[in-house]
Design brief:
This protein has seven helices and nine strands. The protein is of the alpha+beta class. A hairpin with a 4-residue loop joins strand 4 and strand 5. Helix 3 packs antiparallel against helix 4. The longest helix is centred in the first third of the chain and has 20 residues. It starts with a helix and ends in a 5-residue tail after the last helix. It binds zinc ion (ZN).
Length: 263
């Protein structure tokens, strides 16, 4: 994919070389990795409720507006916006986030697992919404392996982006619901993908991932996902960043139906 390739090449250069040499004119400007650290810290504070929802909202907005500005300064971002829109419309922008699976792995028959109302990223006590699609494998003995293949199911990046934050230390008994999760920022869409309940995370904050690249293996981590009544699945959420820097959940069902299958 050309857009992602160009952006990715720029980013990788920016991350590997001292950031002041490539992407940054003002040496006081934070590196991309700094934003990853800020996001990781903030999300952890939200989870343990050591920050008020209002403060969290302000910090989140500041980080996301800074990230958008950083990527807007890349020349290719504007040049490719038309191509981006056509790629999104035809579906070829996205890769199906589970290797070797068809769209029938999406929960429900018409994606009705999505319930966006009442979602608040900044208040960990707010429950009841499910602004996400769940994608399932057949795993009757709940060992994280697909019963058909005896293999783990590879979770793939739906689009190219910057890995912002990860969790890898979830343990059974933990009340945290996402388990081992990954946040990826897509600078072309200016949005965030969240992949939850992984058994194993294969990427690190600051890393650029390409659409269709393996980022983790599906698992059963998370307070509810670990329970026997929960079939093994990937929880996939997308948050569109609005002009004020705040997130709005978007149903990915239409994108998933059109996404490129990866084998
Ligand atoms: Zn879910």
């Amino acid at each position: 994919m050309r857009i992602a390739g160009v952006l990715g090449a720029l980013l990788v250069g920016g991350l590997n070389v001292a950031s002041s040499q490539v992407l940054v004119n003002n040496t006081d400007e934070p590196t991309l990795y700094t934003y990853c650290q800020q996001f990781q810290t903030l999300y952890t504070q939200i989870r343990v409720e050591s920050i008020t929802p209002d403060s969290a909202r302000m910090q989140f907005s500041r980080i996301m507006l800074s990230l958008r500005e950083r990527f807007r300064s890349e020349e290719n971002y504007h040049q490719d916006s038309l191509q981006r829109d056509s790629l999104i419309q035809t579906g070829s922008y996205f890769s199906f986030p589970l290797r070797g699976y068809p769209t029938s792995a999406i929960g429900g028959t018409h994606g009705e697992g999505y319930r966006g109302n009442g979602f608040d990223l900044f208040d960990y006590n707010v429950r009841g919404s499910h602004p996400a699609q769940d994608i399932f494998i057949t795993d009757r003995n709940q060992d994280n392996l697909d019963d058909r293949t005896g293999q783990p199911a590879d979770v793939l990046a739906m689009s190219s982006g910057l890995v912002l934050a990860i969790e890898t230390a979830w343990k059974p008994g933990s009340e945290y619901r996402g388990g081992n999760w990954i946040w990826v920022y897509d600078p072309v869409l200016n949005g965030l993908f969240y992949y939850a309940h992984n058994s194993q995370v294969d990427v690190s904050p600051g890393q650029w991932v390409q659409a269709g690249q393996k980022i983790s293996e599906m698992g059963r981590t998370g307070f509810n996902a670990y329970k026997a009544r929960s079939p093994t699945h990937l929880h996939l959420m997308y948050l569109q960043i609005q002009p004020n820097g705040l997130p709005l959940p978007v149903n990915t069902y239409a994108w998933l139906l059109k996404a490129k299958p990866v084998n």
